[in-house]
UniProtKB/TrEMBL annotation:
It comes from the Eukaryota. Residues 42-99 form the Cathepsin propeptide inhibitor domain. Keywords: Disulfide bond, Endoplasmic reticulum, Glycoprotein, Hydrolase, Protease, Signal, Thiol protease, Zymogen. Belongs to the peptidase C1 family. PANTHER family: CYSTEINE PROTEASE FAMILY C1-RELATED. This is Cathepsin W.
Length: 374
């Protein structure tokens, strides 16, 4: 659709204008962004993401939030040390508080009766340079949480699907709705942890298919219908991996995708590229969003953002490649890089090492007794 093209052109203008406005106001002049331009970009945003507001006051409020988000995106763009681009997204009319409320789930400390698996093997010379489980048909299409705060269930579902396909060479799409309706440890559409989903699978003796037990998306959960449908995948247990990016990469390359829980603050404005944050721009100790880690790689030679300032000097900065993780989000395919995003690998970006968790899939053997974590 044409608006997309206009949007990016106008946006470039607007962002430049906003940046100039900010610089000017720092110098004590204040021309500000051109109101007409801003309104035009906002109108295109509304068209692209089908947004309408009930009254002029709400429109004015959203327009104001939109302008603030554009300014923030511009700032993130300047601060990021990777190749990430920030700008208009489907979340550009939400305040940070609303975004966190709608999509975040606070993960409480270490209150979990599951021990970390201690990896003993050293990373051998066989370390692959790249790994992308999307290339071998083990990853389901990108999901969309819509009105349901269920990243935790979607990440867990993606983990089980991928491991099932890898182990049994049979691709199944599993029911997120079952994980929500039958959840007794988390809060359904109001948030939960990845392990709540795994406990539900154990307690229900397996997972039905997405086709039989489809995702509702209205934000409501219903009566648990686990007993009604044929199960298509099972897990034996789940483990928390070592908080170390090398062993996570090794596990990913040898066993398959794992779930991670990160600080999602930079994702509200993220468009594409590799995010390389600092502990200040993305606090790695506070995580609130679970996603599926599906691969890793390295960029072709790029001039790091750090090079920007240096490039005013008389010599060119050496170009280096940047290692990254590939992550599958659950905000629909129109967000980010077709529903995916990339984080810098090797600097615990946004707390990626805090909770690497994975199920172990297997055909059913015995009934499991499960209880919620303390
Ligand atoms: C746009 O949003 C309205 C409700 O605000 C909805 O009724 C309509 O179906 C949506 N259209 C599309 C194309 O998503
Ligand atoms: C979602 O659930 C509501 C009831 O809470 C129902 O009215 C609606 O039809 C369901 N939507 C889908 C897509 O199943
Ligand atoms: C994520 O990091 C940002 C920036 O450091 C911080 O403001 C935010 O509170 C963090 N998120 C959570 C859930 O604490
Ligand atoms: C396990 O399922 C039973 C019903 O079959 C339910 O009463 C119980 O709360 C569930 N426990 C967990 C931890 O999900």
């Amino acid at each position: 659709m044409a608006p997309t093209v206009h949007l990016s052109c106008l946006l470039a203008l607007l962002v430049a204008g906003l940046a100039q406005g900010i610089k000017d106001s720092l110098r004590g002049q204040d021309p500000g962004p051109q109101p007409l331009e801003l309104k035009e970009v906002f109108r295109l945003f509304q068209m692209q993401y089908n947004r309408s507001y009930p009254n002029p006051a709400e429109y004015a409020r959203r327009l104001d939030i939109f302008a603030q988000n554009l300014a923030k995106a511009q700032r993130l763009q300047e601060e990021d040390l990777g190749t990430a681009e920030f700008g208009v997204t489907q979340f550009s009319d939400l305040t940070e508080e609303e975004f966190v409320q709608l999509y975040g789930s606070q993960v409480a400390g270490e209150a979990l009766g599951v021990s970390r698996k201690v990896g003993s093997e050293e990373w051998g010379e066989s370390e692959p340079q790249t790994c992308d489980w999307r290339k071998v048909g083990t990853i389901s299409p990108v999901r969309d949480q819509r009105n349901c705060n269920c990243c935790w269930a979607m990440a867990a579902a993606g983990n089980i699907e991928a491991l099932w396909a890898i182990k049994f060479r049979h691709f199944v799409e599993v029911s997120v709705q079952q994980l929500l309706d039958c959840d007794r440890c988390g809060n359904g559409c109001r948030g939960g942890f990845v392990w709540d989903a795994f406990l539900t699978v154990l307690n229900n003796s397996g997972l039905a298919s997405e086709k039989d037990y489809p995702f509702n998306g209205s934000g409501k959960t219903h009566r648990c219908l686990a007993k009604k449908y044929k199960k298509v995948a099972w897990i034996q247990d789940f483990i928390i991996l070592q908080a170390c990016e090398q062993s996570m990469a090794r596990h990913l390359a040898t066993e398959g995708p794992i779930t991670v829980t990160i600080n999602m603050t930079l994702l509200q404005q993220y468009q594409k590229g590799v995010i390389k944050a600092t502990p200040t721009t993305c606090d790695p100790t506070q995580v609130d969003h679970s996603v599926l880690l599906v691969g890793f790689g390295k960029t072709k030679l790029v001039e790091g953002r750090q090079g920007k300032a240096a490039s005013f000097g008389s010599y060119a900065r050496p170009r280096r490649s940047m290692a990254y993780w590939i992550l599958k989000n659950s905000w629909g395919p129109q967000w980010g890089e077709e529903g995916y995003f990339r984080l810098h690998r090797g600097s615990n970006t946004c707390g990626i090492t805090k909770f690497p968790v994975t199920a172990r899939v297997d055909k059913p053997k015995k009934q499991h007794q499960v209880s919620c974590p303390p």
